[in-house]
Amino acid sequence: MDQVDQYICSQRERYERELADLLRIASVSADSAFAPHVREAAQFVFDKVQKSGLETELVETDTNPLIIGQWLHADDAPTVLIYGHYDVQPPDPLELWTTPPFEPSVRDGNIYARGATDDKGQMMTHLQAVEAWLHVEERLPVNVKVIIEGEEEVGSAAITDYLATNANRLAADYIVVSDNSMWGPDRPAITYGIRGIIPFEVIARGPNKDLHSGVFGGSVTNPANALVSMMASLVNSQGRIQLPGFYDDVVPLTDEERRAYASLGFDEAGYQAQVGVKELFGESGYSTLERRWARPTCDINGLSGGYQGEGPKTVIASEARAKVTFRLVPNQSPEKIAAAFEKHVKAHCPPGINLEILFYEGGEALLVPSDSRGIQAARRALEAIFEVEPVLIREGGSIPIFNDFVKHLGAECLLIGFGLPDDNTHSPNEKMCLKDYHRGIRSSARLLEELAKP
Amino acid sequence: MDQVDQYICSQRERYERELADLLRIASVSADSAFAPHVREAAQFVFDKVQKSGLETELVETDTNPLIIGQWLHADDAPTVLIYGHYDVQPPDPLELWTTPPFEPSVRDGNIYARGATDDKGQMMTHLQAVEAWLHVEERLPVNVKVIIEGEEEVGSAAITDYLATNANRLAADYIVVSDNSMWGPDRPAITYGIRGIIPFEVIARGPNKDLHSGVFGGSVTNPANALVSMMASLVNSQGRIQLPGFYDDVVPLTDEERRAYASLGFDEAGYQAQVGVKELFGESGYSTLERRWARPTCDINGLSGGYQGEGPKTVIASEARAKVTFRLVPNQSPEKIAAAFEKHVKAHCPPGINLEILFYEGGEALLVPSDSRGIQAARRALEAIFEVEPVLIREGGSIPIFNDFVKHLGAECLLIGFGLPDDNTHSPNEKMCLKDYHRGIRSSARLLEELAKP
After folding, report:
1. Which chain A residues have a beta carbon less than 8 Å from that of B276?
2. CA distance A305 to chain B (A)
C-alpha cells in the first residue's frame, strides 16, 4: 500500500493532464447536439478502464453507452462496485464563465470546467486508484467492478434498465460513489443517510371552461381556491405535516446523531446568507441540519392556474394544478405515504371539484448503520489520507440510482464526496480543488485495502 | 307617442338594414390592424346621431374617438344620457363561426355577427328611438345626451378621462345603458344592482434563487407553501370570507328581494349543466342567484410559481404569485377591504417570506333603489311594449364605467338589456334576436316619455 501511495503521489501531473483531457470533451447529455461528444467521453472512459487492467466492455443501450469493467481475482475478499458518470450538465449561461466551460483552466489550485466535480473529477479518483494498484502491485486487495453511465443528468434510464436485468453481473458487497461534497475544506465526510422522495401532482378541475368571476363568482367552487385549501392543509404553521400517520414510521434521530450534528459547527448565518432569506424556518424542535438531513418535508414545487400575465383578470379558471414532493426519512414507505396523501387530499377537497392525483415514482430513504464494516473502512481510509477524522453526514436530496442499487444488488452504499460545497455544481464556473482530487485518489486506493480487512 | 310607436313599427326593414351596415364594419378595438374600421364605425355612429337631429361632435382622443350628441330643448324635463360603444371583441376563433363574423346573416329571427348584441344592436335601439321621436314629433320628451365610445372592450381609457374633465357637459339625471341581457326570452329585466370589485396580486418571495428541494427542503419557508397557506386563509369551508370586518358594511338582502329572486324560477340544474360542474357551491345560507348577485366573493384568478412543465421537479422556487379579486356588494368600500386584505395577509405570512402586495384599482358596487323614479319609468316602458312585467335583477360582474358615471355625474343608472343570455357575447356566432331589437327601439322611445313624467 505504501508503494501504491508513493506511486500515486508521483503521478500528479499525469492525473491532472488526464482529467483535463476528459473535461475537454463536452459530454452534455441533455442536448442531442452534443451526442458525438457524449460518445467520445464514453470511449475515453472505456480506454481508461481497459488500460487500468480491468476486463472492460462498452455496453450499447437505447441511449448512451455504459462502461462496465471488472477484476475478480481477489479470492475470498469482498467485491466493490464503483459507480460514476461521464455526462455533464449543459454549460449555459456561457457568459457567466470566467474561462470557457470545456477549456479546463487551473486557478488558485482549482480546475475549472463543466463536469470538474460532477462527476468527472470525482469519478476519476477511483479509476486512477484502481490503475495505481494494478500498476504497482499487479493485483487489487478486493474484487472490483466498475459501472460508469452517460446519462445521470437526464434520468439514468439505461443503467436503471441494466440493473434490473443484470443484477448478477453487478453483484457486490459495497458500492462506492463519489458524486457529492466533503463537509468543508480539509474535512472529509461520509454520507451515511439520504432522504427518500415521493412526488405527486394534484389537478383540481371545476367548470368545463374558464368563467367570468363577476358573473359566476360565488356560485361554483373556484379550482384555484380549492387547490390552495387542499395544499395548505398539508403542513401546519409549526412545519408539521398533517397527513394522518405520516410520522408513524419515522426513525427518530438518536441522541448521538443530534450531538454529532450539533458539534459540526454548522454556520447558520452563512447558510442563511447563501440562500438569501431573512429568516430560516422549519419543523419546530429541530436544527437546520436535522431538518435538511433527517426530517421529512413537504414542498410545493409548482403551482399553476388561471391568468399569469400582467395585471388583474376576472377569471375563474377551469383547473388549477400543484406539484408536490415529500422527502422521506428512513423507514417511511413511499407507498404508505402515497395512500395517506391521496386520502388526505380527497378528504380536504371542496364540493364541486373533480380531483385528479398523479402519482410519480418515489424512492425510500437510505441509512447505513454508522458502525457497518463499510463505514468503518471508509473512516480509516479517509483519516489516513486527510489526517483528520471524517465526519458522518446525511444528505437531504435523494439519489434514485441508489435505491436501484440497494433493491437489485442488496449492497451497502458508501457515498464519499471529494467535492466542496462551493464547487458550483450545475452552475457556471464549476470547479474541483486539485488537492482534493489527489487526496481522493489516495483515499480510494486506501479504501480498497481497508475494505479487504475482515 | 302612439305615432312614434307606429312610425317605429313601420321602419323595421330600414332598422335591420342599418344595423347590418354597422355590423359589417370590423371595429375590433383590441387589434391595431383594425384601426381603419374602428374609425369607420365612429363615423357611422357620428352620421347616425347627427341625422337623428342632435348636435353632434366627434371628439378626438389619444385613442379612439368619442361621439357626443345632445338635444337640450325640453325645458324643465329631466336629462337622459345614453351610453353605448361601437367597438367589438376580436372575432377569433374564426373557424367556429357558421357565417363570417363581419357578414351579418339572419337565421331563425336572429342576426348573427360580431357585435350584434355587444353592443351595436343594443346601442342602436336608443339611437333609432331618438331619431323616431325627432322625426315624428320634432321634439324629445326629455333632454337627451348621447356618448358612444370606441374602446369599451379594451378598458374605456378615453371616456374615463373625458368624464373626469367634462362632467358638466355630460351632466344628466339618468344614464341609460343597454349592454347586457334580459332575464330570458320575452322577459325583459331591469338591472338595479351590480357588484363592485377590488383586485390584488400577492407575491411571496423567499430564497434569492430557486433551490433544490432535497438539499434545502425543510430549512427555509417555501414561497409556494407560504402562498397557499395565505390564500387558503381568505375563505373558510362554508364559503365565508375571513378578513376581519369584511361583512360589517354589507347591505343585507331584503326579504322582498329574496322572495323576488326565489320567484324567478332560476333553473339551477340548467345552470349547473351550463358551467359543467358536478355540484354548485357557495356561501352557506344563500341561493345561487343571491350568491351571484348580492353576496361578496373572493376568487383566486391566477396562481403561478415553480415548475409548470410535465412530470415532477425537485425545486423550491424563489417566488410564487397569486392574483385575487373580491367582488363587493353595496356599501362595501374597496379602500377598507384593501386595508383589511393587507392586514390579514401580512398576519398570515409565514416567517422568512418577503411579501409584496400589488393593489389594483377597484370600484364600488351600485344599487339603485327599486322605487326610484327611473326604475319606475323603466318598468312602465318595458311592460307597455313587452306586455309582461319586467323583472328586477342584479348583475354579478362589475361595470367600471358606471362607477365613473356615478362619481362624476351623480346620475341614476338604468341598465336595461335587450340581449339574451345565449347571445354568445365575446364568443363565435354572436347574435341578437331581431324581435328584441325592435322591441328595444320601441321600449327606448317609450322610456324617454316615461322619464318625462313627474
Report:
1. 207-209
2. 5
B211 interfaces chain A, CB cutoff of 8 Å: yes
Q: Inter-axis angle of helices A434-452 and A373-386, to 10 degrees?
A: 140
Asked if the Cβ–Cβ distance from A306 to B321 is below 8 Å, we say: no
CB B323 within 8 A of CB B300: yes
C-alpha cell at position B29: 378595438
> B277 at the A interface (CB within 8 A)?
yes
The three-state (H, E, C) secondary structure of A340-396, written as one string: HHHHHHHHCCCCCCEEEEEECCCECCEECCCCCHHHHHHHHHHHHHHCCCCEEEEEC
CATH class of B196-250+296-359: alpha beta
Q: Which of B301, B310, B353 to mutate to test the interface with A (most CBs of A within 10 A)?
A: B301
- Residue % of chain A over a pLDDT of 90: 90
Helices A434-452, A2-10: crossing angle, 10 deg rounding: 160
Q: How confident is the model at residue A389 (pLDDT cuts 50, 70, 90)?
A: very high
Interface of B with A in 309-338 (CB under 8 A): 311-317, 320-323, 325, 327
**Which of B197, B213, B279 is opposite residue A214, by nearest beta carbon?**
B197
Residues of chain B with CATH 3.40.630.10: 2-194+365-452
Contact A253, A294 (CB under 8 A): yes
Predicted confidence band at A1 (pLDDT cuts at 50, 70, 90)? confident
B427 contact A CB<8A? no
- Whether B132 and B373 have beta carbons less than 8 Å apart is answered as no
Per-residue model confidence as pLDDT tens digits over A291-338: 999 999 999 999 999 999 888 888 999 999 999 999 999 999 999 999
CB contact set of A379 (below 8 Å; sequence gap of 6+)? A190, A389, A390
- Tell me how crowded residue A310 is: count the other CB atoms within 10 A of its CB: 7
Between CA B269 and CA B258 the distance in angstroms is 19
Which three cell numbers, joined as nine digits, stand for B26? Answer: 370590423
Task: Say whether B221 and A325 touch across the interface (CB within 8 A).
Answer: no
The answer to whether B154 faces chain A, any CB pair under 8 Å, is no
Contact (Cβ atoms closer than 8 angstroms) between residue B353 and residue B206: yes
On the 0-12 / 13-18 / 19+ scale of CB atoms within 10 A, A421 is: middle
CA atoms of A39 and A50, how far apart (whole Å): 16
Q: How many CB atoms lie within 10 A of CB A438?
A: 20
- Going by the DSSP 8-state scheme, the letter that residue B181 receives in this structure is B
- Cell output for A308: 399569469
Which residue in B has a C-alpha nearest to residue A206's C-alpha?
A: B277
Contacts of A58 (CB under 8 A, 6+ apart): A42, A43, A46, A65, A66, A67
8 Å CB contact between B227 and B354: no
Tell me the chain B residues in contact with residue A302 when contact means C-beta distances shorter than 8 Å.
224, 305-308, 313, 315, 317
Please give the Cα distance from B274 to B280 (Å, whole number).
11
CB contact under 8 A, A313 and B327: no
C-alpha to C-alpha distance for B356 and B323, rounded to whole angstroms? 12
Tell me where in chain B the CATH 3.30.70.360 domain(s) lie. Answer: 196-250+296-359
- A208 to chain B, any CB pair closer than 8 A? The answer is yes
SS3 B184: strand
* ipTM reported for the complex, 2 dp: 0.90
Residues of A in contact with B323 (CB under 8 A): 306-307, 312-313
Assigned fold of B2-194+365-452: Aminopeptidase (3.40.630)
Chain A residues within 8 A of B261 when measuring between CB atoms: none
The DSSP annotation for A168-235 comes to HHH--SEEEE--SB-SBTTB-EEEEEE-EEEEEEEEEE-SSS-EETTTSBTTB--HHHHHHHHHHTTB
Amino acid at B262: A
The pLDDT tens digits of the residues spanning B398-414 come to: 877 888 898 899 899 99
